[in-house]
Amino acid sequence: MRTITKTLLVGAGVAFAGWVGWGVYSTRNTESVPYERLRALDGAELRRYPETIAVETTAPDGRVAFQRLFGYISGANRAEESISMTAPVETETGESISMTAPVRTETAGDDAGTVRMAFYLPSEYGPETAPEPTESDVALVTEPRRAVAVDRFSWYAPNWRVERRARKLRSTLEAEGIEPIGDPSLLRYNDPWTPPFMRRNELAVEVAGAD
Known about the structure:
The chain is 27% helix and 33% strand. By secondary structure, the protein is of the alpha+beta class. Strands 1, 2, 3, 4, 7, 8, 9, 10, 11 and 12 form a 10-stranded mixed β-sheet that branches. Strands 5-6 form a two-stranded parallel sheet.
């Protein structure tokens, strides 16, 4: 019995170490959207983002949205380029591209039953060079240079927690006299297999008068 217990404990330890190792590997091998840190707030911070290119869709739910965008990075684009979420993938029909973190999710307009989701492309891509989607419900968007307020947190991001963090961020901005533009978006930086204690999530909202 002791031998079996010891074997199970060793196996669990190896599995846990492998899980953590995957989290470290996938995080280090995903490019992140660059930004300039302007200043710290109460539990949050202000950032300046450059112009960025994203592929975006609006769908009935997050699962459908993710599948559409995953189709785009899997080759559903005019160049037939395969785009990996964690590392570059070389293909015969195009060059190697890596998807850039984070994945952005937000409620689409006034319809609470739909979501808008976007994958960011690497910084070397612009409006003229990003592969065009082949699906009509997927589009390339250019986000201009902007100031953003961000509240960062770890573990999972269920709706109730996102709403609580959004209220906290709005309260912080109000106390600082900073005006938000629109509603906050949820930014996810890790793939679904990353351990929850290693995950990076952020609530982000564009702001005015941050300089």
